[in-house]
Amino acid sequence: MKLFFTLVSMCLCIGTLHAQKAQKATVERLIEAIRNTPEEDFPILYPMLKITQEIPAEQGGMEKLRQVFAIIKTYIQDQGPILYTSQEAIELINSGQTKQRVSDILTSDRGVVFYIYLPYHDKLLVRFPIVVNSKNEIIAINIDYCKDNSICLQYL
User: Fold this and answer.
1) What domain of life (predicted)?
2) Which of 5, 36, 93, 156 is 20 to 30 Å apart from 81, CA to CA?
């Protein structure tokens, strides 16, 4: 019986790792697309995102997505960014390799949160976490203020 549970646990771990690899590949494709697309053409990248609602004009409208892409592009243009999950980002911070705080790292109950790490600057782009759901759809690409004035993920 013990062997059975061990095998089941191993299968679940392997399945989780495989799913996370696919989610990471989705983010890598977005990052490469941002890097290789001129800023004026960023709207052609919007279909890579699972947009379920228009961003209200008072919050910047759809122009806000273009601005987020432009900022990410500026940071990653000449570097080889590394993607870390929330847990990996926390481990990186705890190891002292970056000066960010663990409290800057957000998690999501809707998917896996990935952070872009810039090794040449020893910096995580904590303002631009990318959330990928179980269907490998990108459902968030930045943070914003919530109604209670705390920081939270801004879902698309």
Assistant:
1) Bacteria
2) 156
Tokens of 64: 């806000």
**Domain extent for 57:** 1-155
What is the reported pTM? 0.82
What proportion of the chain, given as a percentage, has pLDDT over 70? 81
d(CA 67, CA 123): 20
**Looking at the 3D structure of the chain, how many domains does it have?**
1
Instruction: State the Cα–Cα distance between residues 126 and 138, nearest whole angstrom.
Output: 17
Please give the torsion angle defined by the CA atoms of residues 93, 15, 109 and 5, in that order, rounded to the nearest 10 degrees. -100
Which one-letter amino acid corresponds to residue 28?
A: E
Helix H, strand E, coil C: the string for the chain is CHHHHHHHHHHHHHHHHHHHHHHHHHHHHHHHHHHHCCHHHHHHHHHHECCCCCCCHHHCCCHHHHHHHHHHHHHHCCCCCEEEEHHHHHHHHHCCCCCCCHHHCCCCCCCEEEEEEECCCCEECCCCCEEECCCCCEEEEEEEECCCCCEEEEEC
